Amino acid sequence: MAEAPTPQTLSEQILSHASGKRAMAGDLVIVRVDRCMSHDSLTPEVIDVLRETLKVEHIPDPDRLAVFIDHVAPAATVATANAQVKIRRWVEEQGIRLFHDAGVGVCHQVMIEEGLVAPGQVVFGLDSHSTAYGAVCAFGTGVGSRDMALTLATGYNWLRVPETIRVLVRGRFRPWVNPKDLSLYLCGLLGIDGATYQAVEFHGVEWLDLDGRETLASMTTELGAKAGLIPPVGLSGWEVPEWLGVQEGARYARTVEVDLDALPSQVAAPFSVENVAPAADFANVRVDQVFIGTCTNGRLSDLRSAARLLKGRKVARGVRLLIIPASHRVLQAAVADGTLATLLEAGATIGTPGCGPCIGRHMGVIGEGEVCFSTANRNFRGRMGSPDGLIYLGSPETAAATAVRGMITDPTAL
Amino acid sequence: MARVWMFGENVDTDQILPGRYAPYMTSEADLVKYPFIEARPEFAREVRRGDIIVAGKNFGCGSSREYAPRALYAVGIAAIIAPSFARIFYRNGITLGLPLFEADLTGVLRDGQEVELDLDAPAIRAEGRTYPLPPPPAWLREVWAEGGLIAYYLKHRRLPLEEGAR
Question: From the CA of A193, how many Å to the nearest CA of chain B?
Fold first, then answer.
């Protein structure tokens, strides 16, 4: 009788399937890449490498690539406008149908919203937060421009199969606590290189909605992870391949347990995402701007949560509350259900769906000495504008409470 | 001789090349002016071809922006030595053909020190002492020799691991 094969982690299963050989942690494999994602910030470099170095006039499979204009959308300067003209012309020339121009939304949000990724796929994104696709149990990972050009030219690329850290989640979120708080807690616990070269799997979250899964998967990047995968259980409306799922006995590099019933809202203080403590510890920190948005926390459930806190309240005098829905669809849904009216009534400013000021390029960059409370994913020095500005990270709930008080506020204290 | 540029732990790509100075926001030709423009403004002015960066753990964390390692490559950084690298930065190093070594020399070398880098039998020689660096696998040596993964692919029409791996 043949011996039963060694159980595999989700990454090992997906990379075995994509490489056509049994792949275990530590192996180097050549994988078929099912989907590629590219955005305005780096697509011009990809075009140059394809044309000038690889001499690829037409990429062999234009339907494999989804292109987004979201990082500076709409264009803020002549240089970015010119770069976008170059992208649009190339997209037209290549016959790329999955093109999403300014205003459609943040790449990662739209990729999942439009079903451009699927459980069990290997997805390469030209962006570090491509781990987000693990929300639907796709192996999403970030690569650079030349790597992307090579993948588009050939349809495949190399990967080292990562070891996996298992996060065992127990309990349920307390009121006003967001999956973001769990992510920040893990950054504080494991450090921003706690999962370098590794994958992270979240077990015990089959009850969590897709929005929350996206936040968790996306934020594994801040642990240094190569992929962040949520087992495809409780994922309604998605076709899950029969070979994909948690296998009893798979080998994990480490298991970390988190009890949600004991988890309060968390905040990451400048200038590192691992600089984390309960939001209540920052109660005297005054803020100038509050930003709710990005691929981390700009989804409908995030805006609804913020609106529930802001209903009947006003943004504090001297504070700017900037809200940028993660996508056009999110914006439309927030209009339809009255969420947007509540946010506007409280004094929020709404920006075009896209990355907004997360990368410090437009639509709300911060000046010298300014303090921004943001629902984004990074608080590095200079990330959102002036290197002399300060960024605190937290959930949309904490952001809304902070906007009302003008000081960092645990939402349960409002 | 190579000058040592010493950095701390967790140097993120926003420090190496702030997103506001990306080629998208400025121009490809200006890329060499911007590495460490805010974190260490003298770097781009004083760096010489062949210099090395020695840093603490998790070098290159944050955004995937390939133009960060590319800017370091473009100004002539010959190698980066750190106990660990953020994974996308590490992968971009392989793609670009920029030698990255996982080793901790922060305690033994000084900022501004003149040292000798040996890529053939990977080591740093300084003040009569030799600090060995982890030797790269054969396929990575080939990628360095060709000048990066794209150049390798153009010459061989396959990826270095392709035989046997497929």
Answer: 6
